[in-house]
Amino acid sequence: MRPDTPAENVDHTTEAARLERTAGLYPEDAEALLLRAAAHLELAGDRPAATTLYDRLLSSLDGLENPHLVRALKASNLWEYDHEAEARAIIDGIRASAPRDPAPWVIVAESLEAHDELEAAEETFTEAANLLLTDGAEPPYSTHPLLFGRHRVRRMRGLPHDTWDTVADSLHTSPVSLDELHDPKRVWSLGSDNPAELEAEISRLRAELGAYREALSRPFPVAVLHWPTSELEELLSAYPGLSSEYPSHQQHLSTIESALRELSSSGTPNLGIVTGTVPSYEAFAASEGASPGDVTLLPQYATTLAARGRAVVWPPQRAAVCWCGSGGAYEGCHGAE
Fold it and tell me: pLDDT (tens digit, 9 = 90+) per residue, 273-300?
């Protein structure tokens, strides 16, 4: 989640500098920390400095978890300080590469919308919905902004409801309907001197704020710890006492999937997977004053990684790459179990 606190309440430049220093101390979290630093720089009005941070991240593509997200944020930022041509080129590239993560789609579509490119914004939202929501299952939470954004843009264009708009309506939980929230005439009512119209608009804004706060308050995922093959081998070599917890890598992967399915069937929401590394785990153990060979430390490590934004949502989209690192599609790998 990007910061949105007004500049008069936060020294965004100082906070950005602090996050950059923290990224130097925790290189495994540098991507997330530098993205937040760039957002603070944008809020401070220093958009060229924010672009510099995005370029810094993109210069090390091999280490990025989500290069499409970084490009999308860079495009949105560039357009805000008159680099429209470059921003459009990046947006076209993102759409052509068809990322499987909804976040880059939302950012570029909203950037188009913000600059009154409503038709292009709708096309972008629709491309993403058709790509990411294909198996008939209930759309995951991460895709809701796609459907809500698409609904908003179509309402602004005066288009009739279609199937995706109906899905968006069904996902919307606020007491004020999406049609009312996205009504273009709401803008006109803000200039009214009619108390009834202004009171109605205040009620709508409260409903929107409530939905936004609910999104912000969603807890970090209930996360299960995953060790890649090489990391697990290194871990067990250094701490053989953990062998009882991890008899084999294949069993480790099966245990992750079965545990998540059991949690899901019991009604536990917001599930995820965090990937561990031995250096990171050893540093965590040292910070806790504990031995890395202590098996009770493992769930604490997983929770800490999730709290630091390292969790990947489970289950993946069915056509997405499996979380285990095999390179195959989830539906043909652990999703087929």
Answer: 999 999 889 888 887 888 999 999 999 9
Output the CA torsion 198→199→202→203 (10° steps). Answer: -140
The candidate with the shortest Cα–Cα distance to 331, out of 147, 163, 137, 167, is 137
Distance of CA 104 to the CA centre of its chain: 9
Split at pLDDT 50, 70, 90, the class of 336 is confident
For tokens 């953990």, the residue is 242
pTM value > 0.85: no
Read off φ and ψ for residue 274, nearest 5 degrees: -115, 140
Report, as an integer, the average pLDDT of 190-206.
Answer: 70
